């Protein structure tokens, strides 16, 4: 914001900030909630007392000479850009994709009308329309044509690979949403260290090195937070406490809870569920042959034991390993039960 005086006047400290003025009043009211296409339309509808249910919502940003360079040059940008001619049928399909990913800040959808902006079309090396371009602005800026089709699974698979964003075809979150494969692999490979909650320092160093590749992904920090919880407390209880907190947040969510908040908690739940599952599998593998109720040597009776018990269980005294032997153990009386 260029005017610091204006920001100070209306106590705007965070950007972007959404607010409004009531009719006939000079007081600026800040909107507390997610700033999305849906929330903006709903806010306007509520303040005007109108029904905007049938208003066509656009989830992709139109590029023009005013905003083009500011948006396209933004650091950390990952964007799919549609170059099209007016009235192109692919525009509607593109808007549907933008709607599916509307709550994902990791990827941006932009569209450029090549006929309306002839100078801007020169920024892209193409003569055919529609054309899709993928843009990334990081240490190695990328701007190249998307070589796939507008097939839903193919297109969404590309977004998943490039931006690490997971969505089902209907826009809902799958169980892997929020999870980062590099961290999941790290946890799987070091699950015994985590389960024992000891000597975590080397694991944390490795995790922080991985996080350097995900500076724009807040869930990379969440993975490290969970590992630091285990390291700090020296036990796994805090992981279960965190999981219960997240599940409670989801259980108490209602229509007032913002969609982004619900999705944020869902992604945390997915990360925690994967971690807890890995811990559970590790514990099972560790204990399945060390149960206090079963001696591993009793799982397969020895031959001398079978011969000794032959009169009791009714088998011949033969040394025949091909036969299936069923050993009937003495019954435990009620007062002897564990």
What's the short story on this structure?
This protein has helices at residues 4-9, 37-48, 68-72, 90-100, 152-163, 181-189, 191-196, 201-211, 218-233, 237-251, 259-287, 303-313, and strands spanning 19-21, 28-30, 61-62, 78-84, 108-113, 131-136, 142-145.
Shape label: globular
Q: How many DSSP-defined strands?
A: 7
Provide the residue-averaged pLDDT.
82
Secondary structure class reads alpha/beta
CA gyration radius, whole angstroms: 30 Å
Distance between the amino and carboxyl termini: 71 Å
Q: Tell me the series of helices and strands, N- to C-terminal.
A: HEEHEHEHEEEHHHHHHHH
Biggest sheet architecture: 5 strands, mixed
Kindly state the percentage of residues in helix.
Answer: 40-55%
Write the layout of secondary structure elements.
Blueprint: H1 4-9, E1 19-21, E2 28-30, H2 37-48, E3 61-62, H3 68-72, E4 78-84, H4 90-100, E5 108-113, E6 131-136, E7 142-145, H5 152-163, H6 181-189, H7 191-196, H8 201-211, H9 218-233, H10 237-251, H11 259-287, H12 303-313
Helix pairs in contact: 8-9, 10-11
How would you characterize this protein structure?
The protein has twelve helices and seven strands. The chain has 338 residues and is an alpha/beta fold. The strands form two sheets. A five-stranded mixed sheet has the order 3-5-4-6-7, covered by helices on one side. The chain has a two-stranded antiparallel sheet with strand order 1-2. The model is unreliable at 291-302, 305-315, 317-323 and 331-338 (pLDDT under 50).
């Amino acid at each position: 914001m260029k005017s610091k005086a204006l920001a100070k006047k209306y106590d705007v400290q965070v950007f972007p900030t959404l607010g409004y003025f009531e009719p006939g009043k000079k007081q600026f009211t800040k909107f507390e909630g997610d700033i999305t296409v849906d929330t903006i339309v709903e806010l306007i509808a509520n303040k005007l007392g109108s029904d905007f249910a049938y208003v066509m919502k656009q989830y992709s940003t139109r590029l023009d000479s005013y905003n083009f360079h500011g948006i396209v040059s933004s650091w950390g940008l990952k964007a799919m850009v549609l170059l099209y001619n007016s009235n192109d049928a692919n525009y509607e399909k593109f808007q549907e994709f933008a709607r599916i990913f509307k709550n994902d800040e990791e990827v941006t959808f932009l569209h450029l009308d090549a006929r309306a902006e002839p100078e801007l079309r020169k920024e892209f090396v193409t003569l055919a329309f529609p054309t899709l371009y993928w843009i990334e602005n990081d240490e190695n800026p990328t701007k190249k044509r998307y070589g796939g089709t507008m097939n839903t699974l193919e297109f969404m698979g590309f977004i998943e690979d490039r931006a690490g964003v997971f969505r089902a075809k209907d826009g809902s979150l799958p169980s892997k949403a929020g999870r980062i494969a590099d961290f999941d692999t790290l946890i799987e490979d070091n699950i015994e260290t985590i389960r024992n909650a000891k000597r975590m320092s080397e694991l944390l160093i490795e995790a922080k090195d991985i996080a350097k590749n995900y500076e724009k992904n807040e869930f990379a920090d969440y993975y490290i937070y969970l590992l630091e919880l285990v390291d700090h407390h020296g036990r796994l209880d805090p992981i279960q406490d965190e999981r219960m907190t997240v599940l409670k947040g989801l259980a108490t969510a209602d229509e007032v809870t913002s969609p982004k908040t619900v999705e944020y908690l869902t992604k945390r739940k997915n990360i925690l569920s994967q971690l807890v599952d890995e811990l559970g599998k590790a514990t099972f593998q560790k204990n399945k042959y060390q149960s206090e109720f079963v001696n591993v040597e009793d799982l397969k009776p020895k031959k001398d034991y079978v011969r000794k018990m032959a009169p009791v269980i009714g088998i011949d005294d033969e040394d025949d390993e091909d036969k299936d032997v069923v050993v009937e153990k003495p019954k435990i009386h009620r007062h002897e039960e564990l």
